[in-house]
Write a structure and sequence with these properties.
heterodimer, A: about 350 residues, alpha+beta, Heat Shock Protein 90, Aminopeptidase, 2 domains, seven-stranded mixed beta sheet, five-stranded antiparallel beta sheet, 8 helices, 12 strands, B: about 110 residues, alpha/beta, Transcription Regulator spoIIAA, five-stranded mixed beta sheet, 4 helices, about 40% helix, globular
């Protein structure tokens, strides 16, 4: 068993909730969470385990389930696994904390979990049962706290080009996560949706679990010259998003983005993905052109998706003239069945 | 979890709760509150100063009691919540449904 993982096996009896709580609270403290944060994690795990005990088994059935804690530099992942009855997370009611005294309390437990955790993810394992992953990240480690303001200055539009040389396009190594976070920050500031990319330790952890597949362009001198990633959804989803592309201006004009994306497409294909999609903004034709050249096809348009208040540093205008529209571009990676009627 | 109940000279029922209110223990709280309501005691003040933890199961028991006391013209009030327990009430929006006071005197004020 991995050094940072432990597992508790517990009977399906609410009398064991304090045992689970003691275990989870102690694990959270070991990772470095404060007492308040550990209590919040405990609440989420308590709600998840109560749900398993009360709904996963037949009344009177004696069974057991597991609670595993995976500690990492980025935070704590708690996995509650059982082999009880199937569960449909889509059927969980939406809890409304603003409702009045006659409110329905269905969905309250899941609502609380989502309030206190960074990620709440349900994983169906088929005949092997089901898992609920609860993830809490440590607040420390944001790139803005790791590097000085000077190091994080936005890229200048015109910089001295880096000396000519070759590039290697490959999976990101954990030690490169800080350079990747820096590259994204200097390109987008804090405007890139999805905060994980600003936390190097999280980025490493997400690559370890397969939730993110980060690709880097590394120069002859070992510099991270560019970056892109496959992300979103779950590691075993057949179709995932490709994006987060950023290139250091000193290395621009050398087809780095195209080669990064091609490397990501090759990686997705080798992992058996059925497709990749991108969501380029419509005020930056370059992103669309790169996708088209690599076989991505415009499949849908998402009108006015991004608020006008979002600024894209070095992409188009400083301030958006209106809400920004996205394209949805799809690249099938294996033959798909023909659409009905088509 | 332990519960002890007393009635003051104004007919307000004080319920002292000690311990943790989770899915295992909330049934006892639910029953105790139900018994008081069956006796038409509808002005209920819960002393939560010795409660270190509450989950949604505890909130359910409190909501049920509040719905019933209101029908009887009364109310459930609480005081002495720890910062974490108060956080759970606020996350669930229960601070809108139940009067949460700092002290016992504040909780019974107006009755």
């Amino acid at each position: 068993m991995a050094k940072n993982t432990s597992t508790l096996i517990v009977p399906n009896d609410t009398a064991y909730l304090p045992v689970i709580s003691a275990y989870v609270t102690a694990s959270a403290a070991q990772v470095g969470f404060s007492e308040d944060e550990a209590n919040r994690i405990r609440l989420a795990v308590d709600e998840a385990c109560t749900n398993v005990i009360e709904t996963a088994f037949e009344p009177g059935e004696e069974a057991a389930f597991t609670v595993a804690c995976q500690k990492s530099e980025a935070g704590l992942r708690v996995i509650i696994a059982d082999k009880g009855m199937p569960f449909n997370p889509a059927a969980v009611a939406d809890y409304d904390p603003q409702a009045g005294l006659d409110r329905e309390l269905g969905g309250l437990g899941f609502y609380l979990m989502k309030q206190v955790m960074d990620e709440v993810r349900f994983v169906s394992k088929g005949r092997e049962g089901k898992e609920l992953h609860l993830v809490k990240y440590l607040e420390r480690g944001n790139i803005a706290t790791l590097l000085s303001a000077e190091e994080l200055q936005p890229y200048e539009a015109k910089v001295e080009p880096a000396p000519p040389g070759g590039y290697v396009f490959r999976l990101m190594q954990p030690a490169e996560a800080i350079e990747v976070a820096k590259c994204v920050y200097k390109t987008y500031g804090y405007t890139y949706p999805g905060e994980h990319v600003y936390y190097p330790e999280r980025l490493s952890e997400l690559n370890r679990t397969g939730e993110q597949i980060s690709i880097v362009a590394v120069s002859d001198k070992g510099e991270v010259a560019g970056y892109c990633a496959i992300f979103g959804g779950q590691p075993d989803d057949p179709i995932r998003e490709l994006g987060q592309a950023a290139v250091d201006p000193a290395h621009r004009g050398r087809q780095i983005i195209s080669q990064l994306i091609q490397r990501a497409v090759d990686e997705a294909r080798s992992r058996g993905l059925a497709g990749l999609f991108g969501e380029p903004v419509t005020n930056h034709p370059f992103s669309q052109q790169v996708g088209l050249k690599l076989g991505f096809r415009d499949s849908a348009i998402i009108l006015g998706y991004i608020p006008q208040s979002v600024h894209f540093k070095k992409i188009g205008a400083e301030a958006l003239p209106q809400r920004e529209t996205l394209l949805y571009c799809l690249l099938p990676l294996r033959p798909w069945p023909a659409a009905p009627g088509g | 979890m332990r519960l002890s109940t007393s009635v003051d000279e104004q007919g307000v029922t004080l319920i002292e709760v000690q311990g943790e209110v989770d899915a295992h223990t909330s049934g006892d709280l639910d029953k105790a509150l139900g018994d008081l309501l069956a006796q038409k005691q509808s002005r209920l003040v819960l002393d939560f100063s010795q409660v270190g933890y509450v989950s949604s199961a505890g909130l359910r028991a409190l909501l049920r009691a509040q719905q019933k006391t209101r029908k009887l013209g009364g109310e459930v009030r609480l005081f002495g919540l720890s910062p974490f327990v108060r956080q759970v009430f606020e996350l669930a929006g229960f601070d809108r449904l139940l009067r949460i006071a700092a002290t016992r005197q504040e909780a019974v004020a107006g009755w």
